[in-house]
Write the structure tokens for this entry.
Amino acid sequence: MKRLPVQLVLLVILGLVLTPAPAQTDAAREALRYRLESIPPERPLMAGTEPIPASQAVRQFYQQRLYEPAWVQPDGSVPYGRQLVRALMHANRDGLPPEDYRIERVNAVLDRLAALRQRDALAPRHVVDAELILSGTWMTLGSHSLLGRTDPKSADPQWRIARRGGDLPGLLQQAVDDGAVYRDLRGLLPQADGYARLRRALARYRGIAEQGGFEEIPAGPTLCRGDQGERVALLRRRLAMTDDTESAAAGEPDRFDAGLEQAVRRFQARHGLEEDGVVGRNTLAALNVPAGERVQQIRVNMERWRWLPQELGERYIMVNIAGFDMTVVDDGEPVMTQRVVVGRDYRQTPVFSGRMTYLVLNPAWEVPHSIAVRDLLPQIRQDPEYFHRMGFQLFQGWGAGQQEIDPATVDWQNVADPRFPYRFRQRPGPLNALGTVKFMFPNEHAVYLHDTPARDLFQRADRAFSSGCIRVEQPRELIDLLLADSPRWPPDAVREALDGKREQTVPLPQPIPVHLQYMTAWVDDDGRVHLRKDIYNRDGRVAEALDAPPPERGDLP
């Protein structure tokens, strides 16, 4: 018998090893196509008796691939399966429980495929079930990472900032092509430093909760410097757990000394409390919030980060309503931070994004109808001189048909509240509610930033006093920053215009995005975890939505 050359034998063997089994590949592709085509689009895809999450996105993914399997290779191996399991396990670091994504089912699928492959019993239907389950799981976690696990319109109806977007079928295709299922999934999460710092805070507070949480400090008299006793010892241990004091052994354990007073001030600063160094009712309440509740608070705010758009702008203004502050960011770095006053609970400042395009110097205040009826009308009825003392004008009608009305001719006691036919307008001046300037980013809420004559409010820890607009502490500094590139409006020209007391519109040299957001937890650049009062009681709804069981059919938005 004629022997084949050694080189030819090697080529044949190599071909058998490297060439995929076309019959198996074709059979799996046809089985996958048949499964997707046989189930109507309005119904979820199925693997056995279980519905597949994100069914529509999964359909789109395989249609784009012409039904070629993505996870299961021709030889039955699943090289990216364990990457997906790793991503599911690490989702817990972001407050997204792995059980929401049926991690046990994914592990079972991978184990079953391995066993069938070992017995050479892998059939096309097994491949199809595995493909649908793995792709549906990837799509669901990908959607939650990119857009948030919850729908902000349901969990927090006041949230109106545009969410991020992305082509998830295309992103899964890229992940499979790159062999980077884990990396690309993690890359869908917010990449900002603020989000990463919250992730570390979540791990830290979870650790505290798992070790038994915070010891409760019993109610009692206000604790202050010079006090001594068991409650002081408990206070020292409590503050040491969150690094507000250097160590539990610092100072005499049961004595309230100068070091402990400074530790209390640090805690108060992180929690938005009056920094007086004494433990009164509000500080004690914040100290006794269970660690588990703080874990939930951090999870809620990580979800809010996932709701934010990918790009906030190279230069933008961010107002944190719950934090009572405003920050101007330029090229990723904060260049100005100010305290602000926001809306009362019954006149909440909305959450949305806009574009500031101009400001008005020495603005008159066109009083909204609701404020005129609810606030001003009762004051005028009690004090007839209030109208003139505060510089108001009274009008009826608009535009060319507008008429100024003599307030002395109005029967204020009997004018009908619901159908109040007049408009109030407050002249520019020292008592004007808008102060010396308003910063305009036109929006459906008629909300803007402005100055205020009520300067004392900025010294308070809780600054929810406005009727919805945002009052800024240092308006002239903000003017100078926004007009820094305007040759027409150097600082001297602005001061001259303000001194002139004439209402004047000033266009910005460049529009700047403005984002009004609501965050009750964040971590600053120094690593300090800030946990603030939920002034509008919004955290609870988001927490409930996060903890609700996921729907069986998790179609993506």
Residues 214-289 form a domain with the Muramoyl-pentapeptide Carboxypeptidase; domain 1 fold (CATH 1.10.101.10). Residues 124-147 form the longest helix (24 residues). The mean pLDDT is 91.
